[in-house]
Amino acid sequence: MSGGANTSAVRRLSFDEFSEIVMAGLQPQNGPEALPRNASEIAYEFSEGQMPFHGAPISNIREKILSSRAARAQSFARMVKAAYRGRCAISGLDLRNGGGRAEVQAAHIRPVQHDGPDIVINGLALSGTLHWMFDRGLIGIGENYEILVSENKVPFEVRQRLISPTGRLHLPEDRRHYPHPDYIRFHRENIFGNAA
Predict the structure, then answer these.
(1) Minimal CA–CA distance to 81: which of 109, 104, 50, 54?
(2) What local confidence, expressed as pLDDT, does residue 28 receive?
(3) DSSP 3-state of 16
(4) Residue 136 has pLDDT above 60, yes or no
(5) CA-to-CA distance for 133 and 105, rounded, in angstroms?
(6) Range list of H helices, 103-146
(7) Helices (runs of H) and strands (runs of E) counted in the chain
């Protein structure tokens, strides 16, 4: 079985092994009664006399799961990192850890607390330091994707080391994933330059 380091240590379970694991987790907490050991007995037991479900409709449960902040954040991060191919949009660096994973974070251009959506066109792949600087308004983006730096708050040496020599964002290959001008404008007008 292939799939990288995450799957090489995984072995397939037989149906009986899986049933044993499930049954171990279903042992009663209060009392010595034994639960059925056979999967067909369990299926029969659950099929007989089920009570009607009076909770929220399944579609509402699914919607709640899919709209949960944690799930959206993970999906947003994956999509942004993929769009930028693991490369920091501001420094241009493609840093990888020992396992080959990109060392970038997904930054919202229009922040979530300002109703910024979890979509690729509202995201930038940034190194941790540049993400911090971007969120605090020390760095912004111009109308033509030029990198703006709050010069009175960011020393020249820091700018020289962290900002791409091109002075422009390193954009995704797919134009559909470029940062949207409305989100860039929001950040520039409401966040950039407002750092204390």
Answers:
(1) 104
(2) 57
(3) helix
(4) yes
(5) 13
(6) 128-135
(7) 8, 4
